[in-house]
Every structure is written in structure tokens, then in C-alpha cells.
Design brief:
homodimer, alpha/beta, Dihydrodipicolinate Reductase, domain 2, six-stranded parallel sheet, six-stranded mixed sheet, globular
């Protein structure tokens, strides 16, 4: 679905959350042609003011009439809000870009990463789903490799920051870290265990097959985005005591043999990727460097010594930007392109 | 080399370091039959007092005559100290258990993890090498799997704590975390980049093949310990902002098909392993729980959905204990057994 106007009425649902706030600033940064920006949230957050492009916008409460006259709605308020309100927004004539997991695996709803499958946007009946953060940065890095060498199997272990859980995750890591350093008792409310100075091999809930939902998102969303059920992903997702940006350690096995020099060039020339790979100068992608940046950073690119057609590398991106808000705004840009 | 006495004169070289201190407490905890304990360090640390089994022992300066009358020397003062003094200790009639990388890959020097290859101790000419921390906990978990299913290939990503760098690593993480939370400027002296709230895909120096020395230790030491050059390890080693215990995400491919129920039982019955694997109750191995414990904790055990003969699991151990000091004392126990 492509819409064409000079300027658009845009709404951000879940505007006061970590991703929602980032959506608002990215709309301004990228000079999205906004006629009017409405910010919506639950009654708890309504009344807050956020700045957009130098002006103050008051957050309103999400309700039945919220989408009248709106062209594009960016949703980031959780799956249940999306399930309830995204269809209403579509009925009101809106194109919805949804950052929740609500519609991602629905057959008729495209799941889009603009660097990978921009064409899928055209098939949208009204809702376009934004993939999960850990999937987005991985598929941006995999795309040129799959095109050139054809990927058979990916084994991935993640190092995911607490901002993926939202502002409450950020607050819990800060509070626990401070309490730990002051030798006070650690309280945990957001995570099932202390996250400060610890690693939790547990993101989202566990399924019967022993994998978490977060892990199965990486499996299923990757196949849907590449429209390729043979692309196998074996994931372990881990929360680490980092505020912003997710890091991922990937082992990628391909159908065709890889030339490592060619691969590095290929990645460096691919849209949305920044290769940072000079280990001799201590240069490789780092969470603290990726935070606030748009690119997916790739480094530590090296042949797997144990397999003739496999490579290892390290992928880092800002989970609130490319992993969520930026990707959603990029989808909206495709919608109006 | 096996020696037999009622009690032994023992020396710890590098006694004031993070591993050295742990060696001293483990010797007491395990009631190692110590006649006299001498503690040695560089001139900078000589004169410090450490408590051993309720008594105070003054740290002396390491020198030429340090090993006269000593039966067993535990070295943990870095490779160059080991290269200089371990041969002198052997000449003085000592059995040396060396925690540095100095002799690990030397053909005639056994590299021992008591749960895996205790027999190798008998071949020792005087020096027995203690493997690297990240290798030890991995091979303890791999041993029963290799015996039963025969391992072909391991893909491992690590989450290693700063205590692996010693007390200066611990101090740097604490200081940087405090400075970050207080919005002060972060200084880094020990690591090439900020470690607080960040992950560094860089441990030890980089080699020409794009891997770090730490990574190649996991490759080469594992093959030596299992006496099997066909056991292939593909590693990515990462420093994370955790004080104690290393975590590891493993993907293990075997020659023979794995029954997951049988595998869990097998691991639970194996020496040195504690299976913690009730994800439905949020129970899995955690760095904060492994710290101070002797066992290698294994959990998140599940079949790899992308390969008919592979499993994923999560391994956590106290890097100062099983990863260093405990393993060294266990080797000394084999020497006198």
C-alpha cells in the first residue's frame, strides 16, 4: 500500500515509551513530511509533553476516535493495544506500522526491513509489521551474504540491552547497579533475577520446545522476511547489563564458498551496514558506539576454522533505533515513496 | 608424577592476585594436607598478610631460593614469571601446577582438567599446566557428551567476567560503573574500551587469523585435553560487565544422535557438573549464582532445531574457582593421590 500526499497526518501510539520517544525524534531528524503529529498513550501518560521539531506536543489518551483524519499510525504500545486499535486505525483509513509482535506472523501482513524486503510493503492491506529488534539487525547483516553465497544455517548468541524491555528495564539496571555498588540489597521487579553485573539467558517467555519466544521470533521472522523456509536459525538470546544497543555473535554457514576479502567489501557496500573491523587498532563494533547511530555495525569478520563454508562475525545496532523506531519510520517512508 | 607423604610443603606463587587468594582459601576449604604454606609474590606485594586456615601468613618476595624444601608449587603470576621460575622449582624437586599459558601447549607437559583427563597427570615431568578458564568449564560440560555421542564441532560464544583479568579488571568495572551512574567521565586503563555497560568482543591479543589468543586457547587446549585433533571448536570470546563467573553459549554437533532426556541425565550424573534447567520456574545457570561455587552449572539444554545431531546449552562457572584456583588444587590432589 503506497499513499501519496504532500504532507501527512501522523500519530505515534505509545509515544511516551522508550521506542515511542525515539520514533518522535527520528520523524523530525529525517524530516518526515508531517502535516500534524499526534501523540497518544494510555491515560496514565496522557498530559505529558514531548518536543517534536522544536515544538511542544501534548500526549493525548488513546481512544475510539484517535485515528480520524490520520494517514499514518506508528504503534509501539505492546501487542494487546495493537490488536485492539490497529484494526480501528485501518478502518479509519490509516496505514499502520506496528512495532509489536501482534501481527508479525500473520500470513497477509508484511514484515518489513527496508534494506531486505522493501517490495513487501506494496502487499500491505493496511498494517505493516516491524520485526523484533534482535531480528532486524541480524537480517540487515545477513541480506548481502544470502544474496551472494546463499545462507543455509545461522547460529546466533545475543547480548541484548535492557532498553529492549523499555524504560522500566533501563531504570532497573541503573537502580540495581547503584545498590550493588553501595552494598545495598538488590530488588528485582522487571526481570526474574538481578540483571546488574549478571547475564540472563532468558528473554520473553519459555515455550514447550525449550526455546524462548524471543528466540523463536529470530527463527520465524527471519524466514518470513527472506521468504525462505530453508534459512535455518539456531538462537540463544541473552539479556546483559548494557543500557543501549544489542550485540550478536553470529556463525553463518553458506551454500557457496566465501572469499573473506570479497565478503568484507560486500558488507561495506551494503545499505544500512557500517563495517568496523580493524582489530589491530582495537576497532570492532561496540554497544556504546552504536547507541544513537542508524547503521548496523559489523566486525570481527573471519572464516570459521572448523567449516569450509562458514564465517563468524559480530553485529551491533541501536535496538531502539534500527531495532525499532528507525525501521518503523523507514517503513513509513516506503509507504509514501 | 605422583608423590606420597603425610603432609606437604606448599607454595603459592602470585598469592596476592585474584586467583592466588582463591588458591589459598581453597587449600584450606578442601583440607589439603599442608605441612607448611609459603606465599610468594613480587616485591610490590611482599609483606602483605593473608589468612590461611585461621592463621596469618606473610607474603614473601619470590626469589632464587624460594623452592628449597617445597613439595608442591601452585603458580599464578603470569606467563613470564612461570617461564622464569617454574623450571627452577622443578630443579629444586617441586611439582609445579602452573595456571599461566606458559607451558600449556608444550608437548611433554600435561594439560589437565581432573574430570576430563586425570590420567595425564602421571606423565608429568614436573610441571602440570592448568588450562585457561574459558576452556576448563567448557570441557567439563563436553566430556560426558563426547564420551557418549562423540563431538564433531562446537560453536561457542562467551560472556566472560572481569575477574578473569584479575583485581585490576574488577576495580575498573566498579570505578567505571560508579562514574557512569554519577555522570562523570569514564577512564579506561585496563581494557581498550569502556567495559561498564558495554560488551567487548576482544579478550587477549589478536592473531593474524582474525581470532584472539583467548579464542585460540579454547580451540587448541580443548583438543589437547581430549587428545583428539578432530574435535573442532569455533569460538567468539567476549568480555561482559560482570564481576565473577563466565557464562558460555554452546552449540554442539555430535557424530551420534542425541536423546535430550538421556543427555540431561548424563550431565546430571557427571562429576563436577550441576544441571540447573527448569526454565518453567525461571531456573537456569546464572553468573551471580555460580560465583563461589565449585560446580560447572549447565542449563537451557535443548535440541538444535536446525540440525538433526546438535544441541544448544548454557554453561556457567566461577572462573576464579573451577576456571583457575580450584582446578589447580584438584590437580595437586591428583599428584598426591
Amino acid at each position: 500500500m503506497i499513499i501519496k500526499k504532500k504532507k501527512y497526518n501522523v500519530v505515534v501510539v505509545g509515544a511516551t515509551g522508550a521506542v515511542g520517544r525515539t520514533m518522535v525524534s527520528i520523524l523530525a531528524e529525517r524530516k518526515f513530511p508531517v502535516e500534524k503529529l499526534s501523540l497518544l498513550a494510555s491515560s496514565r501518560s496522557a498530559g505529558q509533553k514531548l518536543s517534536f521539531d522544536g515544538r511542544e506536543v501534548t500526549v493525548a489518551e488513546l481512544g475510539e476516535g484517535s485515528f480520524d483524519g490520520i494517514d499514518i499510525a506508528l504503534f509501539s504500545a505492546g501487542a494487546s493495544v495493537s490488536r485492539q486499535y490497529a484494526p480501528k486505525a485501518v478502518q479509519a483509513g490509516c496505514v499502520v506500522v506496528d512495532n509489536s509482535s501482534a501481527f508479525r506472523m500473520e500470513k497477509d501482513i508484511p514484515l518489513v526491513v527496508p534494506e531486505v524486503n522493501p517490495h513487501a510493503v506494496r502487499k500491505a492491506p493496511g498494517i505493516i509489521a516491524n520485526p523484533n529488534c534482535s531480528t532486524i539487525q541480524m537480517v540487515v547483516a545477513l541480506k548481502p551474504i544470502h544474496d551472494r553465497y546463499r545462507i543455509k544455517r545461522v547460529i546466533v548468541s545475543t547480548y541484548q540491552s535492557v532498553s529492549g524491555t523499555g524504560q522500566k528495564g533501563i531504570a532497573e539496571l541503573a537502580q540495581q547497579s547503584q545498590d550493588f555498588l553501595s552494598k545495598k540489597t538488590i530488588k528485582n521487579e522487571v526481570y526474574p533475577h538481578q540483571i546488574a553485573f549478571n547475564c540472563l539467558p532468558h528473554i520473553d517467555t519459555f515455550l514447550d520446545n525449550g526455546y524462548t519466544k524471543e528466540e523463536m521470533k529470530m527463527v520465524n521472522e527471519t524466514q518470513k522476511i527472506f521468504e525462505d523456509d530453508t534459512l535455518a536459525v539456531s538462537p540463544t538470546t541473552v539479556r546483559v547489563p548494557v543500557f543501549y544497543s544489542h550485540s550478536e555473535s553470529l556463525n553463518v554457514e553458506t551454500e557457496n564458498p566465501i572469499n573473506i576479502g570479497e565478503l568484507k567489501k560486500l558488507l561495506a557496500q551494503s545499505p544500512g551496514i557500517c563495517v568496523v573491523d580493524s582489530p589491530e587498532n582495537d576497532e570492532y563494533p561496540l554497544a556504546i558506539h552504536a547507541a544513537g547511530r542508524d547503521e548496523v555495525m559489523v566486525g570481527r569478520i573471519r572464516l570459521d576454522l572448523t567449516h569450509p563454508k562458514a564465517v563468524n562475525f559480530w553485529v551491533v545496532a541501536d535496538n531502539l533505533r534500527k531495532g525499532a523506531a528507525l525501521n518503523a519510520v523507514q517503513i513509513a517512508e516506503l509507504v509514501i515513496s
